[in-house]
From TrEMBL:
The chain crosses the membrane at residues 27-47. It comes from the Bacteria. This is Chromosome partitioning ATPase, Mrp family, contains Fe-S cluster. Residues 517-529 have a biased composition (Basic residues). Residues 287-306, 381-400, 516-566 are annotated as: Disordered. SUPFAM superfamilies: P-loop containing nucleoside triphosphate hydrolases (SSF52540). Keywords: Membrane, Transmembrane, Transmembrane helix.
Amino acid sequence: MSDTTRAGEAQDEPDLLRDQFRQLIRYRALIVAGVLVGLFGGAWLALTGADTYTSTSEVRLRAATVDPFAVGASADKGIDIGSERQTALSTSVADAAAKIAKAPSETMAHCLQVTNPPNTLVLRFTCSTGSAADSAAWVNAFTKAYLADRQAQTKATINTMIDGYKAQLDPLNKQRNDLLKQIDNTTDQQVISSLTSQQTNLLSRILELNGNISGLRALDSTPGSVIKTGAVPKAPSGPGLPMMLGLGGGVGIALGLLGAWVRLVFDPAVRSEGEVTRTLGAPVLGTLPSGRRRRGSGPAPLLAEGQSGGRLAEEYRAVGFRLAHDKRFAERRRLLVVAPRGSSDTAAAVAVNLSASFAEMGMEVLLIEADLRTPSLSARLRTADGGGRPGWARSPGLGEGGWPAGLQVSIDAGESGSFDLVPGRRVRNVARALTSAPATRLFSEADTPGAAVVVLAPAVLAYADALALADRVDGVVVVCDPREVHRADLVRVRELVTAAGGAVLGVVLHSEEGAGRRRRFGLRRRRTGTGRGDSGHSAPPGTRPPEEGRTGQAHSPAAPERHPVP
């Protein structure tokens, strides 16, 4: 059996991811609930949200220039596009636009957005309102107010510069006039020559200032041009119902997966075979199919045989063959079948059917019921003689409380043959009875060539009986329902078995019918007075429990006669 290979594959990262994804999608209710919540939220926002209409206009800016067609003229000369964007969003522009549109300035200011496409001198004005007509009117008002404000600022700058030039020009004109008077009133040629030179310099300066003033007056102060006028939108600008449903569905899936992940993280139960393998450190030998029984048809027998067993019987045979080819089991042929906690009814069925499978392979099988607290196998199995009263075999000696008392019943396994059963009985000191010398001689029956011993014990975490047997039996098969057992339980079972000197050979998984429903509604099955656990199985017709205190042996057709052991 490739236990190491199975464990290595389980630790592979892709396998872990696939296993976790499969575990997530098991919480379909949470995922579906998340999707429904997302769809409902998207539909609610799409249907109840106010419609928003958006209109856009664009303005291309230009700098003031005398000749825009002159060589070297640049449209972006002196334009800071960031500052112009802030100007467009200023309160003064909003107030001017409110006067044009005859609307509240605060409301209009909240609707405006100004952006600048990269590497352009274009400002894009966007206005979103609850009215299509208002959005177009307001964005055009903002465009007009901004251009008017920019032109007013340009003209104000020109006038300021002209006034400054005039302030410089007036003293020069006065000084020139004084020089002309002095020239007219003097006859000295040297003085006239000096005054004429000063007059020439003043005249040159005056001409320069007049040229600057003429240039400023000739500037084209147009701030820019509207390249796109805001039009009345024909449809709302917000996402429609299909888009909102799509977004809601996506968000819902994310919420559902998040909820499933949180549920998975805080769920202590085991949810997959890979998780069982990783937690217990042993491979899954098989998974028993969950059988459906009609109400009133009676409890199913422990032994799944022939055609009546169907798929269940074949699964038991597969588990038996895997164990028979396990090197660790083949060396000593001792097997302890036990459940982690709760009822051992399914573990009893596994022990019985594994015994039948080994008998089918030609082994001489001895099934020991080490459940000395609620023994029930002898009352639920059919003896080989068919009379319902067991035969009697050799006595290995009386142990604590009379167990084992020498009672060895031959069990009819149908087409598989037969095997011997050492039934349990109630004793006062269970631990002493399980570790007694007669019990040890029973377990040593597997030392005979071609023989195998299968031991059934109570749940590991309920009583320490299985731990007292682990060092004598060595190989342990754990039987559990992955929906009912917790990861901490499996870890505890592995630690206890290993500390007791045994080794977990594998796990047999099963799924009880209606277990999830009982757990959901907090219901528990009523226990019968027979002390047989939760299953409520009764003894087949024609059989009765063996009497305590009697010894003897019934000979199976497939097993040789046993001789007493002193």
